[in-house]
Amino acid sequence: MAATAPDLPQWTSLFGSRLIDLLGWRLIDARPDEGWIRAGFIGKEEFCAAGGFVQGGILSAMLDATMSAAVFAMTQGKMYPPTISMAQKASSSSVDRD
Predict the structure, then answer these.
(1) Is residue 31 exposed (0-12), middle (13-18) or buried (19+ Cβ within 10 Å)?
(2) Rounded CA gap, 83 and 14, in Å?
(3) What does the pLDDT look like over 10-39, one tens digit per residue?
(4) Among 12, 42, 81, 82, fewest CB within 10 Å belongs to which?
(5) Is 86 left (phi over 0), alpha (psi -120 to 50) or beta?
(6) What are the backbone dihedrals phi and psi of residue 33, each rounded to the nearest 5 degrees, phi first?
(7) What is the reported pLDDT for 77?
(8) Which pLDDT belongs to residue 1?
């Protein structure tokens, strides 16, 4: 059975309301026993780089928040991991600017 936000620990206190509001973070579904959550974000125009896509640093913040929330959910609120390292690699599908 899918967990909903009220079934899980205090999501607002997990990130602080400012970060949730800034990123437009929302919990869509969570299945801690299966080891995953699904979160949504709002890709605001202010988040876009010159090419019109959400800037990579913003995407990293969204991913970081989601990874921490997944661990938080899986441990029933007993662990909130800090991010020590998050590596990114440009894909071959990057926009070509020739």
Answers:
(1) middle
(2) 14
(3) 555 555 566 777 888 888 888 888 888 899
(4) 82
(5) beta
(6) -65, -25
(7) 80
(8) 42
